[in-house]
Amino acid sequence: MELVNFNHNAQKNIDQLYPTGAFLTAGVIDDANTMTIGWGTIGIAWSKKTMVVMVTHSRFTHQLIEKYKEFTVTFPYEDMKEELMIVGTKSGRDHDKYELAKLSLDQGQAISTPHIDCHGMTLECKVIFKNEVSKEYLDSAIYDKRYAKSQDFHTVYYGEIITSYIHDKN
Ligand SMILES: Cc1cc2nc3c(=O)[nH]c(=O)nc-3n(C[C@H](O)[C@H](O)[C@H](O)COP(=O)(O)O)c2cc1C
Q1: What is the C-alpha separation between 167 and 69, in angstroms, rounded?
Q2: pLDDT tens string 32-56
Q3: Among 23, 54, 58, 140, which is 20 to 30 Å from 157 by CA?
Q4: Is the CB of 17 under 6 A from ligand 1?
Q5: What spacing in Å lies between the alpha carbon of 33 and ligand 1's midpoint?
Q6: What one-character-per-residue DSSP string does the chain give?
Q7: CB under 8 Å to 21, separation ≥6 — which residues?
Q8: Where along the chain do its domains lie?
Q9: Cβ 83 vs Cβ 101: under 8 Å
Q10: Nearest atom of ligand 1 to the alpha carbon of 64
Q11: Closest Cα partner for 170 from 122, 119, 108?
Q12: Which atom of ligand 1 is closest in space to residue 20's alpha carbon?
């Protein structure tokens, strides 16, 4: 494990995030869940290093972020398209996704939430702010395309990046 700055490999990580995806893990060992995210922002808010993620209310992961108020984001540095597709299409509410995708978790460094055990870079984040996407303030074309039918809005979580590192699979 090598500690790196939060913006290390930023371009590579953003290229991985969209459109292929990164792993978002919430909860604690034995009560954890991982889903795929494609939308997110790495930057600065309130002078703090932050990762902003957008999680739809219907996701099982949403419940766990609400419960534990922290999360990890792991950008894989090996080909994990299949694993990302599995955890990005099945819900942890009905499936053991770690079993299905043959993935395992590794304990974090600074927070209780673990991260996906792979070759990649992980950001450990504590939620410092959240807001709800609402029709009132949203561009109407985005509302029509993303939410008009489902009414399944995203919560936007601002995670302060507590530590960040590159790791290999155990
Ligand atoms: C490439 C990709 C990107 C995704 N990005 C997001 C995202 O940014 N936010 C979100 O809420 N869901 C996103 N999803 C959908 C969730 O990963 C998916 O609904 C997942 O099954 C939720 O799992 P859960 O119910 O176990 O939390 C994405 C899926 C894929 C395949």
Answers
A1: 24
A2: 999 999 999 999 999 999 999 999 9
A3: 140
A4: no
A5: 12
A6: -EE--TTTTHHHHHHIIIII-EEEEEEETTEEEEEEE--EEEEEETTEEEEEEEEETTSHHHHHHHHH-EEEEEEESS--HHHHHHHTTS-TTTS-HHHHHT--EE--SSSS--EE-SSEEEEEEEEEEEEE--GGGS-HHHIIIIITTT--PEEEEEEEEEEEEEE---
A7: 36, 37, 38, 84, 88
A8: 2-167
A9: yes
A10: 27
A11: 119
A12: 1
Cα 87 from chain centre: 11
Domain 2-167: homologous superfamily in CATH: Electron Transport, Fmn-binding Protein; Chain A (2.30.110.10)
Token couple for 77: 């540095």
Question: What's the full length of the chain, in residues?
Answer: 170
Q: Which position has the token pair 């889903």?
A: 35
Tokens of residue 56, six digits = 């739809």
Which ligand 1 atom is the nearest neighbour of the CA of 88? 17
53-91 pLDDT tens trace = 999 999 999 999 999 999 999 999 999 999 999 999 999
161: pLDDT confidence band, cut at 50, 70 and 90? very high
